[in-house]
Amino acid sequence: MSKIAFIFSGQGSQYVGMGKELYDNSDIVKETFKEASEVLGFSVEDLCFSSTEEELNKTENTQVAMVTMCTAISRYLKSIGIEPSMTAGLSLGEYSALVTSGVLDFKVAVDLVRKRGTYMTQAVEQGKGAMSAVIGMERDAVEEVLKVGREKGIVEIANLNCPKQIVISGEKEAVEYAAGLLSEAGAKKVIPLKVSGPFHSTMMKSASEKLHNDLKNIEFKTFKIPVISNYTAKYFENESIVENLRMQVMSSVLWEDSVKFMIEEGCNTFVEIGPKNTLSAFVKKIDRGVNVYNVEDLTSLEKLTKGLEG
């Protein structure tokens, strides 16, 4: 019997119009967007479906748009009988996972990620930080090179996405210097990312501290579905939720390790919820033997339902 994991997209895969087809065809999706709009005091439908890329790509906007869309699709899947055995999300996607697990109220999550996005934007002056994707090097080799790169400032591993695909983050000069060193050391590609800050680095410490103050005041419920943490690549425990979410903002995202853990726990079907198929590609590079689906519209939903029936 299939053991299904829902995995939720993070920031960076958003686009104007995402989720519109499912919104037009599902009352549950419409209701989810309505709830988010009521909390925030503006139309999340307009933000997702008719705003500009520039507006949607503002971190504080991206985060609420993604969590709303992902939660809406998760609710829809549950309504038609597709339930996960476990769940996880990449960075921001972790909040959608926690909502799906029942431990975090959706309306609370929407308000929280709006603040999280604002704190992350405020943490580092625009242009001072940078991130780059490193293709074709093992994590140990990358870390060795970064030790030299730190001569120019802060540069750290931000994401361990899948084998030989790693993201680095930190001060702009140090990241650029490290990029040159990594290329010399054998990286196939080092690609600068279009981001508004050095996420998942210690430069996000002030954002982490502000978020911590909010997290301490939230009532977390009991897990109905297990969630795997970005910070530990193990199951969340109720007593560690606040600390894990605090540290997640300024620590490496252990995505490859998280997927391997889910597979070890018996998961053989991964359903990526959210726009595009970034996480699906990562999962297939980690283990080609598992089933992988992405759901963001009616066509991809049909592929999932047929795949599960088969």
From TrEMBL:
UniProt KW keywords: Acyltransferase, Transferase
Keyword Glycoprotein: no
GO biological process, one term: fatty acid biosynthetic process
Catalytic activity: holo-[ACP] + malonyl-CoA = malonyl-[ACP] + CoA
EC number assigned by the record: 2.3.1.39
SUPFAM superfamilies registered for this protein in UniProt: FabD/lysophospholipase-like, Probable ACP-binding domain of malonyl-CoA ACP transacylase
One of the record's GO molecular function terms: [acyl-carrier-protein] S-malonyltransferase activity
Record's keyword annotation contains Acyltransferase: yes
SMART domains with a match to the protein in the record: PKS_AT
GO cellular component, one term: cytosol
InterPro entries given in the database record: Ac_transferase_dom_sf (IPR001227), Acyl_transferase_dom (IPR014043), Acyl_Trfase/lysoPLipase (IPR016035), Mal-CoA-ACP_Trans/PKS_FabD (IPR050858), Malonyl_CoA-ACP_transAc (IPR024925), Malonyl_CoA-ACP_transAc_FabD (IPR004410), Malonyl_transacylase_ACP-bd (IPR016036)
Family indicated by similarity: Belongs to the fabD family.
Protein name: Malonyl CoA-acyl carrier protein transacylase
Classification of source organism: Bacteria, Bacillati, Bacillota, Clostridia, Eubacteriales
